[in-house]
Amino acid sequence: MKTKFKLNPLAAGAIALTCGVAGPTLAQAQESSAAATTPPAVVITGSRIPRAGTEGPSAVTVITGDDIEKQGYRNVFDALTNQTQNSGFVQGADFGNTFTPSANAISLRGLGPNHTLVLLNGRRMADFPIAYEGTVNFTNLANIPSSVVDRVEILSGGASAVYGSDAVAGVVNIILKKKAEGYDINLKAGDSSRGGGGDKRVQFTGGKSFDKLNTLFSVELLEREPLWSADREFMATKSGTPTTVLARKNVSTGKYVDLGDTCSGIGDLFGGSTIKYTAKAGSYCASPKVAPTYWTTQTKNSSQNLFGSANYELSPEITLYAEALYGQNRSTNNTRGPSWTSRSLTDSYFWNQNTNAYEAWTRYISPEEIGGVDRYNRFWDDKASSLSFGARGTIPGTTWGYEAGYTASLYKSQDHRPRALANIDSFFLGPQQGVDKNGVAIFAPDPARLTKRLTPQEFNSITDASVSNDKSWTNTLSLTANGEAFALPAGPLKVATVAEVGKQGFSNEPDPRINQGYFYTTPGADVTAGTRKRYALGAELNIPVVKTVDATLAGRYDRYSFAGRNDGKFTYNTGVEWRPVQQVLVRGTYATSFRAPDMNYIYKARGTGYYSQTTDYWRCAKAGQPIDSCDYANYSPGSDYVQTGSKDLRSEKGRSTGLGIVWSPSADFDVSLDYWNIKIDDLVTNLSSDKLLRDEAACRVKGDLTSPTCADAIARITRYPDNALNRPGEIKQILVNPINAASTKVDGIDVSAKYVFRTKDYGNFITKANYSKTLNKHSRQFTGDPLENDLEDMSNTDWRDKLNASVTWNVGKWSNTLFLQRYSKIPNGAGTAYLTPTTRVNGSVVYHVNERVTLSVAVNNLFNQVKADNTGGWPYYPVGSYSPMGRQGWVELNYHFGG
User: Fold this and answer.
1) How far is CA 428 from each of CA 351, 368, 422, 623, rounded to the nearest angstrom?
2) Which domain holds residue 457?
3) Helix or strand holding residue 623 (H, E)
4) Quick check: 226 and 298 in contact, CB under 8 A?
5) In terms of C-beta density within 10 A (0-12 exposed, 13-18 middle, 19 or more buried), how is residue 386 classed?
6) I want to staple 169 with a disulfide (CB 3.0 to 4.6 A). Which of 108, 136, 666, 789 is the partner?
7) Residues 167, 249: one domain?
8) 49 in helix, strand or coil?
9) End-to-end CA distance of the chain
10) Which residues, other chains included, contact 452 with Cβ-Cβ below 8 Å and sequence gap of 6+?
């Protein structure tokens, strides 16, 4: 398969708008009334066999399009990330200085974003082209127009026997509408009560049927303003040691050179907060507002999303379909302003010919000098497109249905990152005068150059933006069929088959000027790229054993070709449904699963970078300082790292089991309880830098340098010698290479309930509740290591349990919803204690003015709560786990016409 299909995003958008394309959905359910006695056959996520009703051997959570609006979710990602099964901590778009600040991911069961398979209408989408945390591939959930979402189905547990690789922790299937009559214009705008972070949205959706042709389209435009740390009083000023704005340090003595009244002369910088700060080693200019001034806790976002679909009934047996999705998105953030340290690419100090001393100079450049804080923004231009077409229908002369289709998906991302130019040392220090006998650079700098404020023109002369181009793509050709094979005493044996051929690839192309010495940066920004092919053949059986017992059996073989080798896996799935009485369902499953190694892990060239912040636990321990007040905790920017890939990685092997019971005595009441258990062997992972540093400190404190974990951690962290002239004992770099870890295992329970209370005069009350709790989570990094209890690990910020509950009151033209979310305890930033559980309440009111006009108001976080945590230092809230936004409100107007 040498030919790679490249979908032109503009062409896809044009197809979407002009043709109005639509395709088969994996779950093509039609809404049935509560009084219906025989529900229509639907295809539920986790199976390719149509069945009556949504219950099956595995639990499936369904989020409807109405749920997304009424429960206060802003988009599909917002709805998914708040589901109780999504217990894992992830660094999203609003986390800060990450590899993927323009993307959002989920982590079912806390197993990471790469272990959840995300589908659009049952089809795979291209990965986000940049690896999460620079390591694993995942699907971005930012470009799905919510106006055409019919529902989202979440299957927990392994499903590789049906879908292949990646379906280890579960499957998320986003199912779009396939038909519409008339047109809807939807306007939505909102803001926060504390200010900042407002957003607005316009949607135009419609469709029309022309005899045998059904069409659907949607256009969505979104604008979201950033939220700056300076917009929130509790983190607008950094307590403790302020950030250095200007400093000279004698490296030999470790003392700062006194700057006289220099600090008062630049006291207006950073909003008038720059002062002369005196420490043990002397005085320098500093400000507590440097970090808040430059940090966006919510990214600025502008996106335009288009979708179109069409179905044409060529004959009673054949329907042709096509669908296209195109989205473009610009994300903007700012997580660190421009700063300079002399000779920072080498030893960070120089020989001052004027003072005959080794000195280190530092300068943080303020917004007042560069023309405003936005001048140093970083932004990403992303374009995502998908095109699917094919035919479905029934095989002539039989009752068997089939679908043959082709899907191509492409994702492009362009990163615009401000960088210092190679001339920045000479700008502040003048021309280099050579090197001394120790190889240290010699300068004769003018101190006035360091202390003089810059102009925007001068700043432009020492900075520019690098532009990297990244892309990923996937193509799949598939054929599926299902029908009844023959009759058994208890009913027909139903069969589904699938055959797939696919190819995917990615490339990360850094700005070539980086390696040409144009920027002030370490050279070696290599191109990373790779492809792989996959082939799959599978079958699934639904077997009526006796009248009250049904069994399912699925098997699938997948074969991957990559990096000059092949890797094939057979997975299987078994399930049993037993109805001792009509109102009770007892169900159980056992499934095997696998995940082929992430392409980034395989093909990654040597990569270097730095963490947004680092805590040096060993230096804190040596100094006898607690983490919450340690001088070496949460320092920013953090340590440098080196990462390389490995072509010898093995596929991960997983297995999952489930046992549950459903009681549904009426259409108005049901409750279910499910136990789940997932285990992964040969887990591919890069070790967490924070965990490595914690392990290193713990091992050095107790004198253990030889156990497998201790020896590995200490070898991965290289430090400057304790007697080094500059940065003695500090971390030089951290090595983070991918390995096949020994194992990880997690289990827990899910509880779900629904009750509808109907009244004659006061409308209907609908109550829903979902609860998930992780009972145990254990892992072993190496075979010789003891089993770790991850739930007791104070660096593990996954949710231990989550609860969602809602009450909706429908009466007349009104629909009112109160939605409650309770989050479990998580460790504080210092890892010394737990933060208490937190409950948030959202509310919405929908009023149907008439048949065409609907007006709604939604308020998230009604009680304006912001979770505080001062133990980890600035920014004083649990980043990634909670938001500093506070109360948010939206007003929404929908107008329907033409149908």
Assistant:
1) 14, 18, 12, 34
2) 241-287+335-376+424-461
3) helix 617-623
4) yes
5) buried
6) 108
7) no
8) coil
9) 46
10) none
Count of structural domains within the chain: 2
296-298 vs 255-256, strand pairing mode? unpaired
Average pLDDT, the chain: 89
> Is the CB of residue 101 less than 8 Å from the CB of residue 190?
no
Q: Which two tokens stand for residue 636?
A: 């920013």
Residue 32 has a pLDDT of: 34
Strand partners, 381: 330, 414
CA atoms within 13 A on the CB side of 317: 8
265 to 260, 451, 453, 866: CA distances (angstroms): 10, 9, 9, 38
Please tell me whether residues 873 and 752 are part of one structural domain.
yes
**Are 155 and 259 in a shared domain?**
no
The pTM for the full model equals: 0.86
743 close to 679: Cβ distance less than 8 angstroms: yes
Q: Which long-range contacts (CB under 8 A, 24 or more apart) does 753-760 make?
A: 753/670, 753/671, 753/672, 754/669, 754/670, 754/671, 755/668, 755/669, 756/34, 756/667, 756/668, 756/669, 757/668, 758/668
- Residue 640 in any domain: the answer is no
Q: Any residues with CB less than 8 A from the CB of 727 and at least 6 apart, and which?
A: 348, 720
> In this structure, are residues 167 and 859 in contact, taking their beta carbons and an 8 Å threshold?
no
Sorting pLDDT into bands at 50, 70 and 90, what band is 346?
A: confident
Residue 695 lies in a domain: no
- Gap between the Cα atoms of 551 and 588, Å rounded: 10
Q: Which residue bears the tokens 């108005």?
A: 668
Q: Are 432 and 426 in contact (CB under 8 A)?
A: yes
Whole-angstrom CA distances from 721 to 341, 713, 724, 728, 869 are 21, 17, 5, 6, 34
The answer to whether the beta carbons of residues 634 and 874 sit under 8 Å apart is yes
Structure token pair of residue 79:
């709805």
Residues 104, 245 share a domain: no
* CA-based torsion, 424, 429, 434, 437: positive or negative: negative
Surface-to-core class of residue 564, CB atoms within 10 Å of its CB (0-12 exposed, 13-18 middle, 19+ buried): exposed
Question: Are 509 and 467 a contacting pair, CB within 8 Å?
Answer: no
Tell me, yes or no, whether 35 and 57 share the same domain.
yes
Distance CA 887, CA 666 (A): 38
* Coil, strand or helix at 889: strand
For residues 574 and 552, give the distance between their C-alpha atoms in angstroms, rounded to a whole number: 6
Amino acid at the residue 477:
L
Q: What does the DSSP 8-state code read for residue 722?
A: T
Structure tokens at 61: 């959570």
Quick one: 525 and 429 in the same domain? no
pLDDT in tens, 610-633: 776 799 999 999 999 998 889 899
Backbone angles phi, psi at 691, to 5 degrees: -65, -40
List the beta strands (DSSP E) in 395-524: 401-420, 442-443, 463-488, 491-509
State whether 99 and 139 are in the same domain: yes
Q: Say what the pLDDT of residue 688 is.
A: 77
